[in-house]
Amino acid sequence: MGFIFSLMGLGLTLVYSIMRLVNFAYGEFYMFGGYALYYASSLLGIPAILALPFAPLTGFCIAFVVERLLIRDTYTKKIERPEEYALIITFTLSIFFQNLARELFGPFLRTPSSFLPGRVNFLNFVITWDRVMAVIMAISAFALVYVFVKKTWIGRVWQAVAQNRPGALALGVNIKRTNALAFATSGMLASLAGALLAPIFSTYSSVGTVPLIKGFLIIVIGGLGSIKGSLVGGLIVGLIDSIVSGFISPAYASTALYIIMAGFLVIRPTGLLGGKVRRA
Amino acid sequence: MKVSSHSSAITRVQTVILTIIVIAAAITVVAYYVTLPAPAAEVIKIGVITPLSAPADYISGNLILDTARLFVETQNAKGGVLGKNLELVEADQTLDPSVAISALGRMTLQDNIVGLIGPWESSVSLPVAEATESFPVIMFVADSWADGITSNHYKYVFRTGPYNSFGGFALVDFLKHAGYTKVVTFVEESSYGIGFNDALVQGGEEKYPELEITDMIIEMGRTDFTPEITVIQAMEPLPDVVGVVCNIPVGTLIVKQLYDYGLSENVQVLVMAPNVFYDPNYWESLDEGGVGVIGFSYSGPEMIVTEKGEEFIDLWESKYGAAPTYYALFYYWDSLNMLVEAIEETDSTDPDTLAEYLEGIDYLGTAGSITYTNDPTPGSVYWHQWLGIKQYIFQYTEYGEDSVLIYPLS
């Protein structure tokens, strides 16, 4: 589970690093991914595994539109307090999307068909193939994004903007295009995470709330602005969740995570692998 | 000369005094308009405060709202009540009692509702029931199970449906009949979940001492139950039954994951939340995992569906395209009809008058006669409580098919 929620952390980190804003509607992209998988597979009559690409595509498109209509003003116009504006607008968007989803898709759970039916026995522990597939695909997506950021021209531009925005601008980077792509990519990652987990946990209008919180936990622990930190943070969150649930009680798992998050904020606010933010 | 500072000091005092006067005047004006008696109404308003958004059970809430809307539409087509049309005032109860109570206050003080249905989860219903003591209005409950809703003896609250101590006790009879002795329960962290589980435990102590119940408290909103399922899988011996005392969507996810992990092949899954068992999307959500699951209902094959019951089913089908599947909707329909009868018979919308009438009512509803017990013994749950309910145990034996009655068979 930690691997999959790492995708949430990765998307949040991407947006924060490049655009310096927190997207509170991020959980709703997760939700749209689940619905996209469900409706793509049921309306087209194709297996869920073949319908999977529709999910990140949906997230990408919705995020692109949101960025263009609502977020762009934070860095192109003289809005006082653009970060607070982004916070409020994305929070409002989250509520809007949840209600919109309920109106469009109804109040019922929607469960896409399995990627791969059946279970596998791994070290005396039964796990469904869906979970195995979800982990494999999440790791693959993570690796792809990492290579994209490190090796491609756009990825290098992202790194430049994250490190020194005015410097990047001075070198002729098109900030609108860069930010739009970053925001859309983060939406794509959240939708992919939602689609990967939809056959396991179903999807409904408020399904994105918990993954959003997990995403924030991951980036605080792993480090805001660090891709590797998102992966490490995801693994740590998943591990703590399992250990506390297994050895103490599941009721205390969330509490333990929040206490650890608070500890990081106090002792090491940059997280395990995050760096200090330079503001020019 | 410090004339300016002396002048500014006086100005500051004046400013403070002026501010206090303005605030006091504003409060007075607002209070006046809020308490102003409403003009004589051309309509009679009924309130529906019910879950309409997650994480509350908005699936059931929307069905309750649909029932109320259908009722208002039907009643208005018959000429309304006392020559006036009915109007519905709706609000989302959420899972926050303060939100529901605020809605109640607004509906009673500003909208002047004469009756209320809909508060659903007991964690909200109970505080709203308590609040009717401050905001007097007749409130009907049909599927909120916390004993306190009636055992607290609220003057204006009437329950036309089941309650925890009844449900838990009745279920023990089935467990004994089936020979199940070891039960693990997933218990929703709410007054419904914990209350029902407590009733189950108490029923076992009184009627079936061999029964051993282990509970696992589940906070609402969770989606992954791997830790609990792992613990159950490690039990020696495995339990006979895994009980799910959680509402939609959590209850559905638990049943699904019990199947995903293969546990439901070795233990009997017993759903103790009818809205999970009778979810219209049951098979879509659970697929093969829904086969073999046992649940209970408070309506069975021998449930008498009277002429009124048939009428309700026909109305629902013509408006919503399928028969109502949730038994509580019948009881909400009856509650609204009883409210209308009380208003017409007493020619009054005064809550005290209506409450007195309802205490003595004998109403032939959709499923039989409804009367309320009025035991004044402090703490007795038999206060404004209908006792005509029975529990029936069903099982889904074949994929895609309706559930079949397995207990009682006679």
> How many whole angstroms does the radius of gyration of chain B measure?
25 Å
Trace the largest sheet of chain B across and list its strands.
7-6-8-9-10-15-16
Which stretches of chain B are poorly predicted, pLDDT < 50 over at least 5 residues? Answer: 1-7
- How many distinct beta strands of chain B? 16
What is the percent of helical residues of chain B? Answer: 40-55%
Rg of chain A? 19 Å
| End-to-end Cα distance of chain A | 37 Å
In helices, the fraction of residues of chain A equals over 70%
What can you see in these coordinates?
- The complex is a heterodimer of chains A (280) and B (410).
- Chain A has 280 residues and is mainly α.
- Chain A has one domain (2-209).
- Chain A is built from 13 helices and 2 strands.
- Chain A has helices at residues 2-19, 26-44, 48-51, 54-71, 73-76, 82-105, 129-151, 153-163, 165-170, 175-201, 209-222, 227-247, 253-267; strands at 119-122, 125-128.
- Chain A has a two-stranded antiparallel sheet with strand order 1-2.
- By secondary structure, chain B is an alpha/beta fold.
- In chain B, the strands form 4 sheets. A 7-stranded mixed beta sheet of chain B has the order 7-6-8-9-10-15-16, sandwiched between helices.
- In chain B, helix 3 (97-109) packs parallel to helix 4 (122-131), helix 6 (164-178) packs across helix 7 (191-207) and helix 13 (327-346) packs across helix 14 (351-359).
- Chain B is globular and about 80 Å long.
